[in-house]
Amino acid sequence: MIDSNYERTRKNNIEAYGLLFDLENILRELIAARLRTEHKGSWQKRGLPPDIRDKVSSTIRHERSIPWSRLTPHHPLYYTDFPDLRKIVTNGTNWPLFTEFFHAKSGTDISLSDVESVRNKVAHNRLVSDGDLSVLKGTYTKVLDSLDSLSLEAAKNAICSILSISECLSDIQNSFSHALEVMPSGHILSADRITSLKLLDEWWFDDDYLGEGTSQLRHFSGICKQYSDLPSGIGQAVARREWVKRNQAADLASQSTALIESMIKKASKTYA
What we know:
This protein is mainly α. It folds into two domains: about 5-160, no CATH class; about 165-270, no CATH class. About 65% of the residues lie in helices and about 0% in strands. The longest helix has about 35 residues, at about 5-40.
């Protein structure tokens, strides 16, 4: 028979893990949502302190280096530790984004600091005491009670939402392919046919995350936007064809379409 003390201790650790799963991941999604609202697609570059950005990039590169591992497309905050989340929230520039939820900066800092030692115990399978569990429950209640129901539900839904990198790249490829079709003849490239190029501003369209350079694709995306803004009146096709020739747009379209096709093939083998 298993010792009853063992069962009680094991139960404490399992309960603590469940509370930490909720607390840490809901906090990640809340931070991501607030930074995205403030900084749009480049939220991870503008909202994360430089040392945390470097840490995220290093961790992603390491994960990519494991031959048998397939990456789950988590956003950058899933590559941070709990102390990093506390630092992001209480950072001077970011703090105003969270005051409607947490109100007092010092109290938030203390509450999240209290959780760190318990999290370390759970992460390394050290025994969680009744006192540890009480501290964790207190912070869990304090943080989750500070969120309105819509923010809490949105965070929980985001935790379970898995992005398809291959599908997103395919959407970009479709826009590039359409541009390749219309540019050489000087036909109109309507803005609504290249809306997927907005994906190039998302957090995942990044050299470190994708594992290869994105500058050429960003450059061609800019060419597409410029071309779509060219005059579309009668007799403008000749001027558009001259613009395409002058900017080597057709060649760029062909090269970019081939490049993103290669990225899609790699993504299908890289991401879960």
